[in-house]
Write a structure and sequence with these properties.
Elements (H helix, E strand, L loop, with lengths): L5 H20 L21 E2 L3 E2 L4 E3 L14 E3 L6 H29 L1 H13 L5 H9 L2 E6 L7 H10 L2 E4 L5 H4 L10 E6 L2 E6 L4 H16 L6 E9 L21 H20 L9 E8 L30 H6 L3 H13 L5 E6 L5 H16 L12 E4 L2 E3 L5 H15 L1 E10 L8 H27 L3 E7 L48
Length: 526
């Protein structure tokens, strides 16, 4: 007998929508995570499905965003969301669920008429709030972006923030390798044959559904708003984290031996070719969306200040499905050869107008900065024509910082140092974890906001000072939109910064989608 499920689906969507609204009103899901920042240094906020915040202060973590990439407390990109796998699964279904929730919510709102009145009132209030994209353009002459992931673009108030204040986005998890492999982290999702340089090779099946869901929404926005278009930063092609372990083994089976460096060369070139061609190739519907791409992410160790190896995190088993600290890329090559090759392959297959970047966190630490500079110099030394040499257009300073620092002077000095090597510099995953003095209470929140505002101001002025000294600052991206969805409020294998009693508040908008005091730092145009 055929079952009629339409009514039950609508009821489920309504319940889910109500739950989302309730969670937002309460300042985020109760289960956002009691984790403390583990790692390397928080790789900037790129991490919902994979934010790495890292080992000791990793930054890439995520919000509901899929995360900061990477690292330790200071800032990696793993943290946009909860744990990388869970976030990845949410990203697979989140966009459609977001659309369903939106449709149900609108029906409910239309029935009771309350939303229309609220929207009108909010619209009147918003008229006095300047658009950050216009303010930063006037002040710095560069783009300003934010990270989004999963169902976030289908939350009406959040999408209003994105389209009003930002002219660029980074997808927190959807373009990371585990997403492109369909979040099949335990086992290869299947194989097929492909041609590479006249040779037939066996390759894993790729899945572009997750990023395409969001990209189609951006395309639709751009078509309807040609004077307020949004561009996209690709993130990321080569990263030790959120890349399934089986990708490095014979027959794509992690129970078998590692492949040779020569075999890994083929796999790396094939993967970079397929991703760049699919999204930026001449026949791609998305070719005009992307302004740049992170080629390699977080390849320098916080502990040693040199290249990240396969033993960076001694407590982490290299045979785990994915890694937070150790690099299987290094295990195969035992050198930085894979980094140089990645920029060669990206140069070979990327359009000439697509910028190519290196991206890292804890980038203001003097020891790590020296290691990053050596990496940039090594890539620059191999520059050449497409198909022959490398190309690198800018350094991505992730910006997973704290309300306690680094200082604006540190930002300035680091930007100048990187600019001397590659010319252009960007802040790519900006957020501020709470200060040591913040205890999570309502009483201390006001003081924390004051400190956060001053720190953001000091850092922004440091960036402006570097620009005045000749550094080409080409962009600033915040790792999320509202505080409750920051990767810092979630736990993952690469870090996280929240506890039940001490929620993080790292971004420019609060959980009511309203600008915080720190918002006005970037609204200044004088």
């Amino acid at each position: 007998m055929k079952r009629n499920t339409r009514g039950s689906k609508e009821l489920l969507a309504a319940l889910l929508s109500a739950a989302v609204l309730c969670m937002t009103a309460c300042g985020g899901a109760a289960g956002q995570g009691a984790g403390s920042v583990q790692g390397e240094q928080i790789e900037a906020v790129n991490t919902p499905a994979g934010a790495e915040t890292a080992d000791s202060n990793g930054a890439e973590g995520g919000s509901a965003l899929a995360g900061a990439d990477g690292n330790e407390a200071t800032g990696s990109e793993t943290g946009l969301g909860t744990d990388a796998t869970a976030q990845g699964q949410d990203a697979q279904s989140g966009s459609q669920q977001g659309a369903n929730d939106l449709q149900t919510t609108r029906s409910q709102q239309g029935a009771n008429g309350q939303e229309g009145e609220q929207t009108t009132q909010q619209g009147q209030e918003d008229q006095s709030i300047p658009a950050l994209r216009d303010c930063v353009e006037a002040k710095m002459g560069c783009r300003i972006g934010c990270a989004v992931t999963g169902s976030e673009p289908w939350k009406p108030k959040l999408w209003d923030i994105v389209t009003t204040h930002f002219n660029a986005i980074t997808m927190g998890n959807e373009l990371k390798p585990d997403s492109i492999f369909g979040y099949s982290n335990k086992v290869c999702p299947g194989t097929e044959e492909a041609e590479l340089n006249g040779e037939t090779i066996t390759v894993p099946v790729l899945n572009y559904k997750n990023p395409e869901t969001i990209l189609k929404k951006v395309l639709e926005w751009n078509e309807e708003n040609p004077d307020r278009i949004i561009k996209v930063r690709g993130h990321v092609l080569v990263w030790h984290s959120q890349t399934p372990e089986w990708f490095f083994h014979e027959d794509y089976d992690k129970t078998k031996p590692y492949v040779t460096a020569e075999e890994m060369d083929r796999r790396q070139e094939w993967y970079i070719r397929e991703v760049l061609t699919h999204f930026t190739g001449e026949d791609s519907p998305y070719k005009d969306l992307f302004y740049g791409w992170d080629v390699v992410n977080e390849a320098i160790s916080d502990g040693t200040g040199t290249y990240r190896t396969d033993t960076d995190r001694p407590t982490e088993d290299l045979n785990e499905d994915t890694h937070g600290g150790n690099s299987s890329w290094w295990h195969v090559y035992q050198s930085e050869e894979f980094i140089i090759n990645a920029f060669k392959y990206a140069n070979k297959y990327a359009p000439a107008d697509l910028e190519l970047y290196y991206n890292d966190y804890n980038e203001c630490d003097a020891k790590k900065r020296a290691g990053i500079i050596k990496l940039l110099e090594a890539v620059k030394a191999e520059e050449g024509e497409p198909g022959v040499g490398t190309r690198i257009d800018a350094m991505g300073m992730q910006g997973h910082y704290s309300a306690d620092g680094p200082s604006g002077k540190d930002i300035k000095e680091s930007a100048i140092a990187y600019g001397k090597v590659v010319g252009s510099v960007q802040i790519t995953e900006w957020d501020l974890s709470v200060s040591k003095s913040y205890d999570g209470s309502a009483e201390s929140r006001e003081k924390e906001y004051e400190k956060q505002t001053q720190t953001y101001r000091d850092m922004y002025e440091g960036l402006q000072a570097a620009q005045k000294e000749g550094v080409n600052i080409t962009g600033m991206t915040f790792w999320g939109t509202i505080d409750s969805l920051s990767w810092l409020n979630f736990r993952s294998n690469v870090g996280g910064g929240s506890s039940a009693s001490r929620k993080q508040c790292p971004l420019l908008f609060d959980d009511r989608f309203a600008p915080k005091p720190c918002f006005w730092v970037f609204a200044e145009t004088e």
